[in-house]
Structure formats: C-alpha cells, structure tokens
Amino acid sequence: ADRSILQTIPQKKSLFQALVDGHKEGFYLYPDGKNMNPDLAELMEGSTPNRIKVSQEQFELYSQVESTFQLCKICAENNKDVQIHPCGHLLCRECLKSWQLSKSPTCPFCRQTIWGHEDVEVSPYSSKEGSPTAKDESDEGDLEDVDLVLQQLMLMRQNQGRADPVSSPDLDPVLQTPPVPPRLDLLQQRAPALPLPDYQNLASSSHWIK
Question: Structure pTM?
Fold first, then answer.
C-alpha cells in the first residue's frame, strides 16, 4: 500500500494474535519494519480460543425458530467461531472474510466499525450444567436478530387474526354479492314511442280506391 505506519493497541486479544490476524486480513506486510514477517508459530501452539457457553435462555429462544445459538446466522451452515470487537457479535470466519472483502469493514449485524476479532468456541447448551457464567450473560447482543424475527412472527399472527373475510368481501370473489338486475320499468320509459296507425286515413284511402 502506501507503506504508512498505523499503530493501535488490541484490547481483547494478545499482541501476537493481533499480528497474525492483521497479516491474514492484509492490514500490513511487515509489522516489525523488516523485509520479512516474524514467525509466530511457537506462540500460536499454546493459544486456545475463548469458550462461550450457551445459556438456557439462549437455547430456548433459538429453539422457537428451529435453530441453534452456535449456528452462523449469515450462511446457516457453519458454526460461529469468531467474535467481532467491540460489538461482540458472533459469526463464522468464512462469512467474516467474505463480508470484509465485498462490503465494508463494519459489523454485518449492527454496522459498527470492526476494531478486531478473536477466535471463540461456542459450547452447546446442556441441562446438566449449572447457571450461566458472566460470559454468557454479557453476550446478549447476538440475540437481537432472533428477537426481531419473533416480533415479526407475532405481528403476522395478529394481522391474520384481525382480517375478517365477511367484513371485507372484496378480498374473496366468492363472497361478493351478485350485481343488481336492471329495472324493466326504466327500460320501458327510455324506449322511444312508436307512432300509432291512423285508421281514419286508412279508411278514406280505401274509399278512393273503390
């Protein structure tokens, strides 16, 4: 690019993870100023992704729309494995890459600028586990899209219940009343009167003929 140096401090990830992610996304070429990238493989071996446990509330809410919390809501194929910062929304890495390349560097859910992201592992809900941890309770932002879907379903059901086919026959051709037949007396009044035959003239004309 223009070889300008931009420096920022990662807030929710280690520095080596920020360097690796930034290199994959094309933010820079050589972070240490040399003509080669440093090898961070040793640091990556011991790193483990953060684990997010699905709470009972999240499990029940997504079950109402026949889905799961861990499923990516963009592609509906892969599981969520990336958390966007600072908004905290979750999606899969493939969708994040496609979104950043084709659209803009913003969150696809809330359109907030993406400052970074980290790998996460979403653990499915289990009834045997205890109460949700603080990590579960802080992840309420990812429930916004499901809440919107449930609200839309509720409005659709209310609108269907309010629709009364008897009060609005125009919606159903079967319920429409037949057209009113025309009045015969009006048609007779409008018809032009024919001239009556003159019987006196006919009689006189017949006399001359004789």
Answer: 0.45
